[in-house]
Design brief:
Elements: H1 8-41, E1 48-49, E2 61-70, E3 77-80, E4 84-88, E5 93-100, E6 107-116, E7 124-129, E8 135-137, E9 142-151, E10 166-176, H2 180-196
Parallel strand pairs: 1-7, 2-10
Antiparallel strand pairs: 2-4, 3-5, 5-9, 6-8, 6-10, 7-9
C-alpha cells in the first residue's frame, strides 16, 4: 500500500494528488517523445533526415512548394527565394530561404518545419537545413539559408503516398533569446540608453 496510514477521505485525496502529479510528469515527457516519434516515423508531416541522397533516381517527378511564415511578434521578413521546383524522385534538390532583420537590434530565431500532405513526411528527407541551428541576424542583415533535400523513392511503394504529385515544405521562424555572448554585447548599449534618458 502506498498510503497505509491514511484512511477514508484523506487517502482518496492523497491518491488523487498522486494521479495528478503523475499526469503532470507524463505531460512534460510527452513533448520530447512526440518530437522523437514524428522524426523517426514522419508522422504529422515531419520530414526525415539523412546524410546522403539515395542511389536510385526515378523518372517520376514531384513539385515541391516552399512556404514561409513567422510566429506572431517575430519582426523578421522571411520568404522562399523560389516558390516551387520540380524534381525527380530520389534526386537531390537545393532551395534557399531568405531572412531579413529590419530592426535596429540583433534578433535570434529558430525555425520549425513540416511537410504537407502528412503521408509524405517520412519520404521528404532533408540532408542539410538551416532549421538545425539557431540563426542570429544583426540589424539590417539579410541572409539566404539553404536546404538540401530529396524525396525518397520508397514513397512509390506506399499506397497512401505513391500518387502524391505535390509536396509543400513549410517553415515558421520563432524568435528565441539571444545567445549569451550576443546578449552580453547588448547590455552596455541598453545601459547607455538609460543613462542618456
Amino acid at each position: 500500500m502506498i498510503f497505509p496510514r491514511l484512511q477514508g477521505k484523506n487517502r482518496t485525496a492523497a491518491q488523487l494528488v498522486l494521479v495528478a502529479l503523475t499526469m503532470l510528469g507524463l505531460s512534460f515527457a510527452a513533448v520530447p517523445f512526440y518530437d522523437w516519434f514524428c522524426r523517426v516515423t514522419g508522422y504529422g508531416g515531419t520530414p526525415a533526415v539523412a546524410e546522403v541522397a539515395p542511389d536510385r533516381i526515378l523518372d517520376q517527378t514531384v513539385k515541391i512548394r516552399f512556404d514561409a511564415s513567422l510566429e506572431q511578434g517575430m519582426p523578421w521578413v522571411f520568404k522562399p527565394v523560389v516558390r516551387s521546383m520540380d524534381i525527380r524522385i530520389g534526386e537531390t534538390g537545393l532551395a534557399f530561404y531568405e531572412a531579413h532583420n529590419p530592426t535596429d537590434r540583433p534578433i535570434a530565431g529558430t525555425a520549425s518545419f513540416n511537410v504537407y500532405p502528412d503521408t509524405t513526411g517520412g519520404y521528404f528527407t532533408k540532408i542539410a537545413c538551416f532549421c538545425f541551428t539557431e540563426q542570429v541576424l544583426q540589424p539590417g542583415e539579410t541572409v539566404q539559408m539553404p536546404v538540401t533535400f530529396f524525396v525518397d523513392p520508397a514513397m512509390m511503394d506506399d499506397p497512401d503516398a505513391r500518387f502524391v504529385r505535390e509536396i509543400t515544405l513549410s517553415y515558421t521562424f520563432h524568435e528565441t533569446p539571444l545567445p549569451e555572448d550576443q546578449a552580453a554585447l547588448q547590455q552596455p548599449a541598453a545601459a547607455d540608453a538609460t543613462a542618456v534618458n
